[in-house]
Amino acid sequence: MKQINILLSGLILLGLMFSGYQCSSAELSSAKLYIQQKNWDKAIESLNKEVAKNPKSDEGYYLLGLVSKEKDEIKAMVENFDKSTQISSKFKKRN
Fold first, then answer.
1. Which residue has the higher pLDDT, 89 or 4?
2. CB proximity list for 85: less than 8 A, separation 6 or greater
3. pLDDT tens-digit profile of 1-60?
4. pTM of the full structure
5. Domains of the chain (ranges plus CATH)?
6. Which of 85, 63, 66 is nearest to 74 (CA)?
7. Tally of CB atoms within 10 A around 3
8. What DSSP string runs through 31-90?
């Protein structure tokens, strides 16, 4: 009985760890909200904070590319999409 309780507790803890790992940072969450509101300058501000804090943020660079596209900043768009795909191929098909 004691082993079952320990195993169950371990599985619950493992589940919480995985669900917490998938949460976005505050900067990414804010940027996504600003993008929905088409507030490009605030989105860029949040995304720049994100990539400064986490230089390996493939999603941060991808979203910077999207915002740059909306602002017709083609050079910045290409640079950010390239940075995103250099980190991972997760957003490669979306570019």
1. 89
2. 58, 91, 92, 95
3. 667 667 556 656 555 555 444 567 899 999 999 999 999 999 999 999 999 999 999 999
4. 0.73
5. 24-94 (1.25.40.10)
6. 66
7. 7
8. HHHHHHTT-HHHHHHHHHHHHHH-TT-HHHHHHHHHHHHHTT-HHHHHHHHHHHHHH-ST
